[in-house]
Specification:
about 150 residues; alpha+beta; Alpha-D-Glucose-1,6-Bisphosphate, Chain A, domain 4; 3 helices; about 30% helix
Length: about 150
Amino acid sequence: MRTIRAMGIARIDAPAAEVYGIIADYHVGHPSILPPAFQNLVVESGGVGAGTRIRFEMKIGGRLRTLRAAVTEPDPGRVLVESDLDGGGVTTFTVTPLGEAVCQIHILTEWTSGGLRGWVESILAPRMLEPLYSEELAILQRVATEGTAGRRPN
């Protein structure tokens, strides 16, 4: 088995608490930062932070996949984790303050896969996911600095 990782990292010109609040709010904030490859986000329960369960579609590599995830907060206000309910990967959002009005956000998705499939995924998945994370982080920068949470980007 091999561990496959895809990540994105960016400096956001907004307070860490505000950025974390956007990410943790699955009713308004989180949907407002998703690139078009992520579609139809539905909150199945909860909606803000730990205890939230979501369902969404992701179009990647020409395939549309439906995913379900449970949200936990191992370090509330700093670390939020989405765990695939069907045994897939884990996506961790880590927000680190760099000052009063600036922070760093790190998105990391990890999963294990074996055999030929694992080898192929280890090559292709980061190349497909990391540009999506860069786009998501750019949208997050705009939403956090313009106060546009809840409005889909054009």
